[in-house]
Design brief:
By secondary structure, the protein is mainly α. The chain is built from three helices and no strands. The protein is flat. It starts with a helix and ends with a helix.
Length: about 60
């Protein structure tokens, strides 16, 4: 079972998740601070809103096809 491509892919996914989680575990405060600063930026908020709207519209249009 450990020689299958499915197993190798799953192990890779789990390892990447673990590495990412470990890398960011110590910077929670910095991330929150940065996000709060970005939320206060009107240009960022506008771009984020447009991006979310675009994603939602693309998703809704896929269902119509």
């Amino acid at each position: 079972a450990i020689k299958t491509d499915e197993f190798k892919l799953r192990v890779r996914e789990v390892l990447l998740h673990k590495i990412a989680k470990t890398m960011i575990s110590g910077i929670d405060g910095s991330v929150d601070k940065t996000i709060n600063q970005m939320k206060q930026d009107a240009v960022f908020r506008s771009r984020l809103t447009l991006s979310v709207n675009t994603l939602v519209n693309e998703f809704l249009n896929q269902d119509k096809k």
